[in-house]
Amino acid sequence: MPRSVNSVASKARKKKVLKQAKGFFGRKKNVWTVAKNAVEKGLTYAYRDRKQKKRQFRGLWIQRINAGAREHGMSYSEFMGKVNAKGIELNRKVLADLAMNHPEAFKAVVDAVK
Q: pTM higher than 0.85 for the full model?
């Protein structure tokens, strides 16, 4: 009996990977073995960095809140401690936006916690 290889399916798999490699530099975009490795590595980075993006944004929000709080004579930890003690239900994302884009509203929050 002759060997069956199902070239239709394997060609479809290769086509799918090469489509994902579109835009890569050099042989990574059109050579199957190189493209397969590059796409796999890219997908692992994408998975990892979806988690890291959340950490990085939280750090950015903390920096912005800290800068806004220091303009009013408080440190970040002091400010956040008082916000939680007063029961103000604003998360870091909203507080950072207020500190950055609406300084008068942020000043009102600072005055409320003082």
A: no
Rounded CA-CA distance 33/102 in Å is 52
Q: How far is CA 79 from CA 51, 72, 112, in A?
A: 27, 10, 11
pLDDT tens, 42-60? 999 999 999 999 999 999 9
| The token pair that represents 7 in the structure block | 């070239």
Choose which CATH entry (1.10.1900.20, 3.40.190.170, 3.30.420.280, 1.10.10.60) describes domain 9-113.
Answer: 1.10.1900.20
Output phi, psi for 81, to 5 deg. Answer: -60, -45
